[in-house]
Amino acid sequence: MRATAETVVLLSHKSPDSHINVTVEFGEGEGKVPLDKIVERAKQHQPVPKATYKMIQEYVEKKYGFKVHTAYIAEVKRELGLSMYDAPNAAEGLRRPRKHPTKEKVNAIKDALNYFNLI
Question: Helices H, strands E: what count in the chain?
């Protein structure tokens, strides 16, 4: 087994009051921390990847055979009251009236949102 040392550094000019040395042994046996439980706990705390508009578009195209515009995805998310982020390149006002997606595209987008556990 390989020994590893970690150091915590304070970003200060002060000297520490005391030091604490901790030794943890991994593996099987008394007083050792089993690795399989660490892996299991790490899997439980993994963040859920967020579905991007591109992922939603790819899902819809693969399953339904047509493409959906990101504006349609945003429209459906807005209609469902889902959280949305402000786009850094968003225009102040619309040049043309917003086009609404067809019922078929709305249903496909909702299916994709459901697939990615967003609704």
Answer: 4, 0
Q: Which pTM was predicted?
A: 0.58
Reference 71, options 104, 105, 103; nearest CA is 105
What CA–CA distance (Å, rounded) separates 57 from 53? 6
Average the pLDDT over 2-11 and give the result.
Answer: 68
pLDDT at 5 over 80: no
User: Is 33 strand, coil or helix?
Assistant: strand
> What are the φ/ψ torsions at residue 9 (nearest 5 degrees)?
-115, 130
pLDDT of residue 104: 95
pLDDT at residue 2 is higher than 70: no
Distance CA 80, CA 94 (A): 21
List Cβ neighbours of 53 (8 Å cut-off, separation of 6 or more).
Answer: 70, 73, 74
Which residue matches tokens 């992922």? Answer: 55
